[in-house]
Amino acid sequence: MLRIENLRASVDGKEILKGLSLEVPAGEVHAIMGPNGAGKSTLSYVLTGRAGYEVTAGTATLDGEDLLALAPDERAARGVFLSFQYPLEIPGVPALTFLRTALNAQRRARGEAEITAPEFLKLARAKAAALKIDFDMLKRALNVGFSGGEKKRMEILQMAMLSPRFLILDETDSGLDIDALRIVSEGVNALRSPERAMLMITHYQRLLDYIKPDRVHVLAGGRIVASGGPELAHELEREGYERYEAAA
Amino acid sequence: MAAVRQTVEHVQALEKYQHGFSTDIEQDFAPKGLNADIVRFISAKKDEPEWMLQWRLEAFERWLAMDEPSWAKVNFPRIDYQDSYYYAAPRAKAGPKSLDEVDPDILETYKKLGIPLREQEVLAGVEGAPRYAVDAVFDSVSVVTTFKKELAQVGVIFCSMSEAIREHPELVKQYLGSVVPVSDNYFACLNAAVFSDGSFVYVPPGVRCPMELSTYFRINAENSGQFERTLIIADKGAYVSYLEGCTAPMRDENQLHAAVVELVVLDDAEIKYSTVQNWYPGDPETGKGGIYNFVTKRADCRGDRSKVSWTQVETGSAITWKYPSCVLRGEGSSGEFYSIAITNGRQQADTGTKMIHLGANTRSRIISKGISAGKSSNTYRGLVSAHPKAKGARNFTQCDSLLIGKRCAAHTVPYIEARNGQAKFEHEATTTRLSEDQLFYVMQRGLSQEEAVQLLVNGFVKDVLQELPMEFAVEAQKLVAISLEGSVG
Question: Which residues pair with B265 in a beta bridge?
């Protein structure tokens, strides 16, 4: 599904990703772990096309299609979704309006019919209930005055509504208490399917107890320096990143 | 409602300034230039009584002695007042009695603008459909007013100003110039001398006007100024909601629009006045052409517990210079001002309001949303004052500015004067730049850059949009989107 080869990217002229290669097949969940400043968030922004992140070499394809040539909204329409570490507040735009606008924009881009109002409301009610989000909250401006945990739950709700193919979770566990972490994880696990792939970016092993990865990669110094099964995460938890930072 | 849907579709269908066409019709012009004879010509053309002519001539005399003000934060070359036509009217045999007598070309023009007057009349028969009575002003002359008969049944007078001068002279004499005196300011004084038409509304005591009233202004003729004058009187306990819309063709010359709007509100009455202003803004690159929108709008809350609400969506004009104001004279009277002012390209806007608290326990509320894009300049200028007798006066002001891009400017100039110790004024102001973070977030969810800007801007102006009559809010929202096209990237 996702194939990244020898990717190099700079921000403000400073190279952050230095020849990163990674493959995430459909149906799998991969975790990317690494120390601060290793380039984890940069990777998520490069894959989603944020302005200011300049790709200088390498390729990134989704099912063979060149992702890097597409605008952020075109990547979204092809099923790339980023759950933000710090979701943005959108004053004056109710969450429901935001969701419906986004869903219909993606449908239009794919040449599909727009969702009708009753269909949309039914879908939103069901998904919100599953994530234990009070439906009335969706009438408020998106993320404005929401707690950290509520914002993260809203990210997962958006993900569930938009039904993407390739999901990037950037530090989804940060700012969550145990109950919220469980709810969010259940939401993510519900989206696991043979047609989807996920990339989970995290500092800590904790999240991986809830969302079990198929593979774990260590990102340090702008490259993947080690890959392994879930046991690698436990090893990192015990021994830290020092060894890999030195190697990078 | 079909008319509104058509308007919305129309707006969607076109790009940039979509009202830039002109209509080729036969017109009567007064000779170019301005002198006492032109004032007499206009008055004679309109068959006005002697008192009206004298009123105009007196205004003209005073205007000659005045200087053009220069305090606004706007720049424009000196206006040559002798190089303009002060009267342009579609050539017609006599005043049209019904739509059938109106020049089909004019009706076609309004249709292009999304105001299908005929449909409105047809719709009159549809039960439950919202209805709007329309007064259409083409260049200087009111060409048609719909729904007059139905309104007359409940005693509401809705007609052109010329007709009001002829048919209801006692009301006009009593109220004209009583809110905006003849020599109030340079442009209002000029208007008093040469105003050619406009709308007149009188709602009798205790009557709630059964439909929205609206006027569409269209400047068509070249090198002509438009000087309409609107007078609305809500008698004791009356209520009326009124909307004006404005468009003009694209022309390389600047055209002056110096209108005067007077609102008179008696005891327990309420007027809701909404404006969707979309005059031609001039060329976005060179700044050539466009309308100078120098307008005086004022409401006099004469009665106790009277209420006025101004809502404006200002997207057009090369220069907008206006301050819809409330004189809160009656005890417990209240004034509201909700404004969205958008400038793009090389537009300049200096707009805001004045809330003059004269009576005890008067209240006012100001919500202003300024959006600047391109190389434009957007200034909020407002005055809130409490006079010694205005014990317990209260005001809340919120001014938010949004900057899109790096070459635009936003200014906030609030004047606050409290001349008694029991007035309570609050002022909040923010200036923000449309954030890259927000844009990326929204685009990551699937919206194109332009759609993302629209969504964020609509969120920013929501508090004001919801004050507009619902159907017009939809139209205004589209207008906001069009005004900001190409503002990012």
Answer: B234, B301
